[in-house]
Design a protein that fits this description.
Layout: H1 19-29, H2 37-43, H3 50-62, E1 70-76, E2 82-88
Length: about 100
Protein backbone atom coordinates (compact mmCIF):
# COMPACT_ATOMS: atom_id res chain seq x y z
CA UNK A 1 0.00 0.00 0.00
CA UNK A 2 1.34 3.40 -0.93
CA UNK A 3 1.43 6.24 1.55
CA UNK A 4 -0.98 8.36 -0.49
CA UNK A 5 -3.53 5.54 -0.27
CA UNK A 6 -3.67 5.58 3.52
CA UNK A 7 -6.69 7.25 4.99
CA UNK A 8 -6.08 9.19 8.15
CA UNK A 9 -8.46 8.34 10.92
CA UNK A 10 -10.45 11.15 12.40
CA UNK A 11 -8.92 10.87 15.86
CA UNK A 12 -8.73 13.35 18.66
CA UNK A 13 -5.23 13.65 20.11
CA UNK A 14 -4.72 11.90 23.43
CA UNK A 15 -4.93 14.30 26.33
CA UNK A 16 -2.50 13.61 29.13
CA UNK A 17 -3.44 14.28 32.72
CA UNK A 18 -0.62 15.73 34.76
CA UNK A 19 -2.57 16.74 37.86
CA UNK A 20 -1.37 13.74 39.92
CA UNK A 21 2.24 14.64 39.17
CA UNK A 22 1.55 18.30 40.00
CA UNK A 23 -0.14 17.36 43.28
CA UNK A 24 2.81 15.16 44.27
CA UNK A 25 5.26 17.94 43.40
CA UNK A 26 3.39 20.54 45.46
CA UNK A 27 2.92 18.18 48.41
CA UNK A 28 6.61 17.26 48.50
CA UNK A 29 8.18 20.62 47.63
CA UNK A 30 5.59 23.31 48.26
CA UNK A 31 7.37 24.54 51.39
CA UNK A 32 9.23 27.32 49.57
CA UNK A 33 12.74 25.88 49.95
CA UNK A 34 15.20 26.23 47.05
CA UNK A 35 16.00 22.86 45.44
CA UNK A 36 17.72 21.54 42.34
CA UNK A 37 15.93 19.11 40.01
CA UNK A 38 18.11 16.33 41.44
CA UNK A 39 16.88 17.16 44.95
CA UNK A 40 13.25 17.42 43.81
CA UNK A 41 13.48 14.07 41.99
CA UNK A 42 14.96 12.43 45.11
CA UNK A 43 12.29 13.99 47.36
CA UNK A 44 9.67 12.34 45.13
CA UNK A 45 11.48 8.96 45.41
CA UNK A 46 12.46 9.04 41.71
CA UNK A 47 8.85 8.39 40.63
CA UNK A 48 9.05 11.13 37.99
CA UNK A 49 11.82 12.14 35.61
CA UNK A 50 13.65 15.44 35.94
CA UNK A 51 12.29 16.35 32.51
CA UNK A 52 8.70 15.85 33.63
CA UNK A 53 9.28 17.69 36.90
CA UNK A 54 10.87 20.59 35.05
CA UNK A 55 7.79 20.77 32.81
CA UNK A 56 5.43 20.84 35.81
CA UNK A 57 7.50 23.60 37.45
CA UNK A 58 7.33 25.56 34.20
CA UNK A 59 3.56 25.00 34.15
CA UNK A 60 3.31 26.47 37.66
CA UNK A 61 5.30 29.54 36.62
CA UNK A 62 3.02 30.08 33.62
CA UNK A 63 -0.18 29.34 35.52
CA UNK A 64 -2.14 26.15 35.14
CA UNK A 65 -5.87 25.63 35.75
CA UNK A 66 -6.58 24.04 39.11
CA UNK A 67 -3.31 25.24 40.64
CA UNK A 68 -3.72 29.01 40.38
CA UNK A 69 -2.75 29.54 44.03
CA UNK A 70 0.75 28.14 43.40
CA UNK A 71 3.78 29.41 41.53
CA UNK A 72 7.47 28.67 41.17
CA UNK A 73 10.64 30.73 41.00
CA UNK A 74 13.93 29.84 39.36
CA UNK A 75 17.47 31.01 39.98
CA UNK A 76 20.95 29.82 39.12
CA UNK A 77 23.28 28.53 41.82
CA UNK A 78 26.12 30.27 39.99
CA UNK A 79 27.75 26.99 38.99
CA UNK A 80 25.92 24.21 37.18
CA UNK A 81 22.35 24.01 38.39
CA UNK A 82 19.15 25.97 38.40
CA UNK A 83 17.34 26.04 41.71
CA UNK A 84 13.57 26.06 42.01
CA UNK A 85 11.24 27.26 44.73
CA UNK A 86 7.57 26.21 44.79
CA UNK A 87 5.26 28.28 46.97
CA UNK A 88 1.79 29.73 47.34
CA UNK A 89 1.36 33.06 45.59
CA UNK A 90 0.05 34.50 48.87
CA UNK A 91 3.47 33.72 50.43
CA UNK A 92 5.44 35.47 47.66
CA UNK A 93 8.69 37.04 48.85
CA UNK A 94 8.78 40.83 48.85
CA UNK A 95 11.47 42.75 47.01
CA UNK A 96 14.41 41.17 45.18
CA UNK A 97 15.09 37.50 44.56
CA UNK A 98 16.01 35.46 47.59
CA UNK A 99 19.32 33.67 47.77
CA UNK A 100 19.57 30.08 48.82
Amino acid sequence: MHLHQLTLLDMEPKRYEYSKQMEALIKACGDGAWRSLVEIEAKLNHRYSQTGLSARIRDLRRGVPGFEAWTAARQSDGARFNLYRIYRKADAPQGRKEER
